[in-house]
Amino acid sequence: MSPDPEIPLAKVRDAALALPSTTEKPSHGSPGFFVEGGAAFAYFWHDHHGDGETVAIVKTTGLDEQQMLIEGDPAFYYAPPYLGPSGWVAMRLDGEDMDWDRVADRIAISGELAAPRRLLEAGGR
């Protein structure tokens, strides 16, 4: 768990809000990021229900992609409670050599999965 959640939250926020037509609002007590039309594409959780994790949670294309990501890097990815059964994946944000470009890329992919076609046709990221 990150001792200071403001640092990883700022990086997640920057990546999410850099996407077109996105907003941040609280969702169940944690920061959530939404694309135009209200579709969620990312959440930031810090010590959610005392789990000791600082994570960004993002959409995937489904359970197959979620499983592939987790199997490929189980120290970084895991299936989060509540959202995991729908194919979302959590990224642990407290590694010593955190690759923030990797995190931002997954946030952008998630944003594209949630975005209305009109936004994607306008050019996306």
From TrEMBL:
The keyword Zinc-finger does not apply. Keywords: DNA-binding. GO terms for molecular function: DNA binding. InterPro entries: YjbR-like_sf, YjbR/MT2646/Rv2570-like. The keyword DNA-binding applies. Coiled coil: none annotated. This is MmcQ/YjbR family DNA-binding protein. It comes from Sphingomonas aliaeris.
